C-alpha cells in the first residue's frame, strides 16, 4: 500500500468535476489539487504554452510528495500527456484515453461526437484514440469554447446555455451520433442542457467518471491504494483568486474547501 497523496491538476476550478469522481470512487485517498487560475484558459493557448504550463503544474505537484498524477484538464491531457510521461517517472494519467474507451463501449452505431475546447478538438487526440479502439468509428469533433464561461457564470440552466448548445451541436445532430463525449472539465455541469438538446437517444460519456475508474484500477494493480480507512486530507492550491475558487469549487464539490493556498506557479 502507498499512503502518499494523489496529485491532480487543471487550468482552474473545472478539474473539480474530475476530483469529485475520484473522491466518490476512492474515498480514502489523500489529495493534492492544483488549479492554475492565474493562467486559465488553456483551451485557447498554443500547444507550446500548454506543454510549458503542464510541466510547471507537474513539478509543483511533485514537490508535494505525491504517488501519481491525474491531468484533470482535457486540453492539457490532449496536448501534454506524452511529453509529461517522457519527462517524469511517476505514473501519470490523463482523461482522453479513459474517455475514448468509454465512448467506444457506449456506441451502437459507431457514430461518436466529441466536444471540447478549441485546443482539445484541434489536437485530434480524442478522435485518434477513439479510432484506435474502434476502426469503424466515425468521429466528429466540435469545439464549444463558450461553454466554459457559461458554467463559470453559473448559467448552466439558462436560455443562453440552451441556445448556445443548439448552435454548437447542430452538426452533431446532423451526423446522427448516438454517443457524445463531454471532453472538457466544465461540460458535465451542462449535462441537463446537453441531454435536452441532443435528445434521450444520445448517450453522454463523462471522461471524469471514466478517469476515476482507470485511476482506481491503476492503483489497485500496482498495490498503491491507501488502505488506511481514515478521513482523508484534501489540500488545494491555486495560482490566483483563491476566494473565487473556494466559492465556485465548493459548489462543484458539494463540500467546503478548507485547506486552500495561493502559490507562485512561475517558480516551478
Ligand atoms: N480545463 C479545460 C479543459 O478541460 C477547460 C478550461 C480551459 O480552457 O482551461 O479542457
Give an overview of the whole structure.
- The protein is α/β, with parallel strands linked by helices and 268 residues long.
- The protein folds into 2 domains: 6-94 and 209-267, Rossmann fold (3-Layer(aba) Sandwich), CATH 3.40.50.1860; 96-207, 3-Layer(aba) Sandwich (Rossmann fold).
- 46% of the residues lie in helices and 18% in strands.
- The protein contains 11 helices and 10 strands.
- The protein has helices at residues 16-25, 47-62, 74-87, 96-106, 118-123, 125-133, 146-152, 159-174, 191-198, 207-221, 242-253; strands spanning 5-10, 31-35, 66-71, 92-93, 111-116, 138-143, 179-183, 203-205, 234-238, 259-262.
- A 6-stranded parallel β-sheet has the order 4-3-1-2-9-10, sandwiched between helices. It has a 4-stranded parallel β-sheet with strand order 6-5-7-8, with helices on both faces.
- Strand 9, helix 11 (242-253) and strand 10 form a beta-alpha-beta unit.
- Helix 4 (96-106) packs across helix 6 (125-133).
- The longest helix is centred in the first third of the chain and has 16 residues, at 47-62.
- The two termini are 29 Å apart.
- The site of D-glutamic acid has 17 residues, from helix 3.
